[in-house]
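Please review this one.

:::
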Amino acid sequence: MRVEQFSHIVFDMDGVLIDSNPFKISVAKRVMQSILPEAAMVFAEHFRKNFGQTRKAHFTWAYENVLARHGFTEEIVDTLIEQYGKLIAENYASCDVTAGTRSLLSQLHRPCYVLTGSDQHEARALLGGHQLNTQFVDILGGPVNKSDNLKNVIHTYGINPAESVFIGDALHDFEVASHFGLSFILVTQYMPFDNQALIEKVISSGGYVIDTLSDLLIDRLNK
């Protein structure tokens, strides 16, 4: 499989371009620990298994499934989102670029986009800090979800889903790509959970599985 066969390439960010998944899980756990310590592990596990969603979706799940039973009101969602954002801002920039990212982007002569569950302003700042932002036509993130953002990319830039690919590391990425008819490449190196079930699901649907973006480098494929 050669990634250059696709006319447009959509990347997830966390766990694909940036090695940030462990950091974000630790922050999510820390936020929940601050208000309901006994729920911290449950929330961290939910967060771990549902990467790709917006923080609004994550903390709404926490409220509906855990916090409401302990007397918290719905206003706690916005409070937690704010706390999470502040903690992310403290160390997000220290997360490294993943293996193969710079080399692959330098080889691609196709329009590339980023769709992330992270806050859009944070994502643009993070990629800008790593001098990667100029490699992308657009960088879209929260609070808008990935499905709506991909719909916007398709309509705004006139891409043909059948000729395009989404490169992600989570079930949510796969589901969004499948819904809109994009091919899918699963990056497994930085996935923070047992990924065998997802790997099998991607393969059975005709998708592709790689370790890191280094596996897509043209010089490696030619060896």
